[in-house]
Amino acid sequence: MNPIDQRLKSLNIALPEPAAPVASYRPARAVGGLLYVSGQLPFRDGAVVTGRLGDSLGTEEGAAAARLCGLMLLAQVRAAIGFEHLASCVKLGGFVACTPDFTDHPSVINGASDLMAEVLDEAGRHVRFAVGAPSLPLGACVEVEAIFALQ
Amino acid sequence: MNPIDQRLKSLNIALPEPAAPVASYRPARAVGGLLYVSGQLPFRDGAVVTGRLGDSLGTEEGAAAARLCGLMLLAQVRAAIGFEHLASCVKLGGFVACTPDFTDHPSVINGASDLMAEVLDEAGRHVRFAVGAPSLPLGACVEVEAIFALQ
Amino acid sequence: MNPIDQRLKSLNIALPEPAAPVASYRPARAVGGLLYVSGQLPFRDGAVVTGRLGDSLGTEEGAAAARLCGLMLLAQVRAAIGFEHLASCVKLGGFVACTPDFTDHPSVINGASDLMAEVLDEAGRHVRFAVGAPSLPLGACVEVEAIFALQ
């Protein structure tokens, strides 16, 4: 068992089944030493977590959903290349479905950022953006894309 | 004639004139084996396709507009490096101008994704994100950016 | 003093203190010859410039804020690697907090694009996207992320 799988086990984190793309693209693609991963939605018990921040959802619920996106990102990495080839998390791009007066996008996307630090330690420290969107696919409350470095 | 130009011809697809940037940037930039292409708007007969999904535009109209963005991306690739240097489509980033209750962003951006698969076959299978925006430049209904791999 | 610092001095441009991340991520990350920089907000006198385009803010005010984002991007580059290792600006990703009827995102993000050309000349000519968002972190009116090439 490689160190990342061991870490997940010790943290009692079970990754979900990697979601199939909801349309005509692929979940991950390695090129030039990097692994690009498609935007992932928050799935809980097989259903997308829907809603809008600043309206139907609070920041903690949003952060929990962003963590689910992060788990799905890691599941896609494992399915695409296996953790033995994962070096670090380079970048997260976070989109938050929200109202025009919502201002705490960073705390929401922290749900995914904190997960990367938790699982990958120093190698999980990435750059990112966190922005709002009026709506996201399937009514999801958050979507997170990523770039990882390979080894 | 290289294979991609041949494929376009057999599919009866004519690429548009590559649009000039509407502001102070460049349409494409090669670095480290990748070609980054600026966000492209949907042009039909020289005019931007405007409107919002969930409001003035239906999903099929949105997908047709996203296909126009894809054609413009390919036109920018050809103008920047020529298809003989194009290896594959790595990533699309899709923004859909939409209402807060719109949920079918994936079907809209499929207009661009399906075009890449159609023209580039297996090499056209990319990662992507598809998200909403309250509005886009010039009132466009969709904007798609891309990363291609060079050979 | 390297050429970029000299250029900033001759233009009478003083870079701000690089802002600390407002959450659990890092401001910049070098990988594979590129420097990825996190989305930067517009800071003036230590405070975020807030508001929405098409509503409380005009396009010139938005462009001035985007220029502040650009200054912060350059400050992050200098802090992360020093300008002696900076080769060029590859890409800007610009998000504009705006109303659904706003259409001049390009002029807003030009505030950042023009700065790169001003400071880096030909090496400052990048690809980009410019899109709308219903809201941005801390109520910011604009957020700009970037990729730079290293030497």
Q: What would you say the CATH architecture of chain A is? A: 2-Layer Sandwich
- Could you report the average pLDDT of chain A, rounded to the nearest whole number? 96
Q: Percent range for helical residues of chain A?
A: 25-40%
CATH-wise, what's the superfamily of chain A? RutC-like
Low-confidence stretches of chain A at least 5 residues in length (pLDDT < 50)?
none
Protein chains sharing the most extensive interface = A-B, 28 and 35 residues
Number of strands of chain A: 7
- What's the CATH class of chain A, please? Alpha Beta
Strand order of the largest sheet of chain A: 1-2-7-5-6
Distance between the termini of chain A: 17 Å
Summarize the structure in words.
The first copy, chain A, is α+β, with helices and mostly antiparallel strands. Chain A has a single domain, classed as 60s Ribosomal Protein L30, Chain: A, CATH 3.30.1330.40. Chain A contains three helices and seven strands; from the N terminus they run H-E-E-E-E-H-E-H-E-E. In chain A, the strands form two sheets. In chain A, strands 1-2-7-5-6 form a five-stranded mixed β-sheet, covered by helices on one side. In chain A, a hairpin with a 2-residue loop joins strand 1 and strand 2. The interface between A and C is medium-sized, with 35 and 28 residues.
